[in-house]
Write a structure and sequence with these properties.
The structure is a single chain. With 606 residues, the chain is of the alpha+beta class. It has 21 helices and 20 strands. It has two domains: 174 residues, Penicillin-binding protein 2a (Domain 2), CATH 3.90.1310.10; 334 residues, 3-Layer(aba) Sandwich (Beta-lactamase). Strands 2, 3, 4, 5, 10 and 16 form a six-stranded mixed sheet that branches. Strands 12-11-20-19-18 form a five-stranded antiparallel sheet, with helices on both faces. It has a three-stranded antiparallel sheet with strand order 1-8-9, with no helix packed on it. Strand 11 and strand 12 form a beta hairpin.
């Protein structure tokens, strides 16, 4: 009997213990643990991602070139629309979209996720959002998310700055920072420094009533996180020089790249034709992008970084340096020119009429084709085989950053074209020599460079043998260091002593009595330059000019390429001269030349 009484007490004790546990657990759930409050209130809470303000962008002189203006995205939560009778027609009238567009957008949002927010209509202006917010309570599942939209105070440097585009599904999977409808950098600085510019998102938890109306912050914002604005970037460009360059290149096709030789900082990067950057923001971004992408003049194509062109006569300077380095010539070595260079069976590389014979400095000044074809042949004959000579030549040329990606801070670009000897072995079945590829002596043939490579080549000449990788970033806020690769001095394979005669020749191009660009002098500054005219089988030849100034302690190195511009002295040289004077003197003395360039139109169809 006593045994049964003890068993009864044990059972009662266990039951009491279970009751106590349940009461304790209920107290914890209802009073102490906030997580259960979240679960219970999910049907009246809205979790709103707070977009970070994108970082500002300034030029080297602290001029603001990319800012932000307030805007809104109309967001959708598909699950909140289920089972609700919504006046679709009224919604379409309010948001200025068609019913077909409404159902297409809804389907895409539902396919992405029924429970995750996504953008329904992008970039609604502050003015339009005010009207929309007053009536949005009538439409469950929709709300406005505040964000900032890019603003371009100067409307220039479009190719350099780049633009934003909506992320695709793949990117949202690869980088969980992004959700459907987010924007990220597609090109230019916006893409290259996306992680620094985008900032950190925040989260706001809001109470909403049954009509989807905002009832304020949940628990006074205790669980909210604030967004952190993106880093501010200071670029290396001079926005006034950039603006001037774009004006000079209006109604012309080509590019300008200007570099500070002592640092590798890009002072100006112009690609023409260009476009208004405001076309690629706002609700009509996609429509405008399609229009630009179909434009025959290719305004979206960045010719400064991606355009590949024959360098023409500017490349004679590199061949001159290689011939000096390898002992094929001295600066005093002379060659005859009989209106051209004769080789093979009645083959000839033509040259304009001038005094003969000429040495290296004069050959550069008057741009003698015969001279540089002759030294190219003489260089090849100093080796045991054409392949050995070419491989050595290839190594020298590569050291100038030619045939390689520049490894700068742009995500797009072209390595140009610098074929290896195996290419010619295959093409000519092993039987070839200097004369077979003699066009390479004057920058023609298979050789192709980008304008930024031409500008970097010019910086090497200005520095007498070294360069810093051309780059666009000068400073990032928050103490973030720029890529150390941009501060490392890189040397080409030519000894410093061999640059003197080349630079003397470049000086004579502008300042000599027979110089091919003597129309481009500027008072008080010595410009050292080289004209080029690249043959174009599809039309008028291309106009080219590279230069640096001053001759000693140079402050700017520049390359100008004008498609279908004819002689280098006609368009490219004056443009470069005006850019140099604008940068060094902040004013233009040759107003007549300036007017000629500004009014020039090379895009007119006859």
């Amino acid at each position: 009997m006593k045994h049964h009484e003890n068993r009864h007490k044990v059972i009662v004790g266990i039951l009491l213990l279970i009751v106590i546990i349940f009461i304790t657990k209920l107290f914890y759930i209802q009073v102490i643990n906030d997580n259960y409050k979240f679960s219970a209130n999910n049907n009246v809470l809205r979790y709103e991602v707070q977009q970070a303000v994108r970082g500002l962008i300034y030029d080297r002189d602290s001029n603001l070139i990319v800012a932000n203006v307030p805007a809104y995205d109309l967001m959708i939560l598909p699950r909140e629309l289920k089972g609700k009778n919504m006046d679709t027609l009224a919604f379409c009238n309010l948001t200025d979209i068609s019913k077909k567009e409404f159902f297409t957008k809804y389907k895409k949002a539902a396919e992405y996720s029924g429970y995750k927010e996504s953008v329904f209509i992008k970039h609604i202006s502050l003015e339009n959002s005010s009207t929309l917010s007053e009536k949005l309570f009538q439409f469950p599942g929709f709300y406005l998310r505040k964000l900032s939209m890019r603003d371009y105070p100067s409307n220039i440097a479009t190719h350099l700055i780049g633009y934003l585009g909506e992320v695709n599904l793949q990117k949202t999977k690869e980088d969980h920072y992004y959700t459907k409808g987010d924007l990220s950098g597609v090109s230019g600085v916006e893409a290259a420094y996306e992680k620094q510019l985008r900032g950190t998102k925040g989260m706001a938890i809001k109470l909403v009533d049954v009509h989807n109306r905002d009832q304020g912050k949940f628990q006074e914002g205790r669980f909210d996180t604030l967004p952190i604005a993106g880093n501010t970037l200071t670029l290396t460009i001079d926005i006034k020089l950039q603006e001037y360059g774009e004006r000079l290149m209006q109604n012309k096709i080509g590019a300008i790249v200007a570099i500070e030789p002592s640092s590798g900082e890009i002072l100006s990067l112009v690609s023409s034709p260009t476009y208004n950057p405001n076309l690629l923001i706002g609700r009509k971004r996609s429509e405008n992008y399609n229009m630009l992408s179909q434009d025959a003049s290719k305004p979206l194509f960045n010719r400064a970084l991606q355009g590949t062109y024959p360098p023409g006569s500017i490349f004679k300077l590199i061949n001159g340096l290689i011939a000096l380095q390898e002992g094929a010539i001295l600066k005093s070595t002379h060659f005859q020119c009989n209106d051209g260079y004769n080789y093979g069976n009645d083959k000839k590389v033509n040259c304009h009429s001038h005094k003969s014979p000429v040495n290296l400095i004069t050959g550069i000044e008057i741009s003698c084709n015969s001279y540089f074809c002759s030294i190219y042949e003489k260089y090849f004959k100093s080796f045991n085989s054409s392949m050995q000579a070419y491989d050595n030549w290839y190594s020298h040329v590569s050291s100038f950053g030619i045939g390689n990606f520049m490894h700068n801070d742009f995500i797009t670009g072209s390595p140009g074209k610098l074929p290896k000897s195996t290419y010619f072995n295959t093409l000519y079945r092993g039987s070839w020599n200097a004369n077979t590829i003699i066009s390479m002596a004057i920058g023609q043939g298979e050789l192709l460079l980008t304008p930024i490579q031409m500008a970097n080549m010019t910086a090497i000449l200005a520095n007498r043998g070294y360069y810093y990788t051309p780059h666009i970033i000068k400073n990032i806020s928050g103490g973030i260091a720029i890529d150390s690769n941009f501060t490392i001095k890189k040397y080409c394979s030519i000894e410093r002593k061999y640059f003197s005669p080349i630079i003397d020749g470049m000086n004579n191009v502008v300042n000599g009595t027979e110089g091919t660009a003597k129309n481009c002098k500027i008072p008080d500054y010595e410009i050292c330059g080289k004209t080029g005219t690249a043959q174009n089988p599809h039309g008028e030849d291309h106009s080219i000019f590279i230069a640096f100034s001053p001759k000693d302690n140079p402050k700017i190195a520049i390359a100008v390429y004008v498609e279908n511009g004819g002689w280098g002295s006609t368009w490219a040289a004056p443009i470069a001269s005006l850019m140099i004077e604008k940068y060094l003197k902040k004013e233009i003395t040759n107003k007549e030349q300036e007017a000629f360039i500004l009014n020039g139109n090379l895009t007119k169809k006859e």
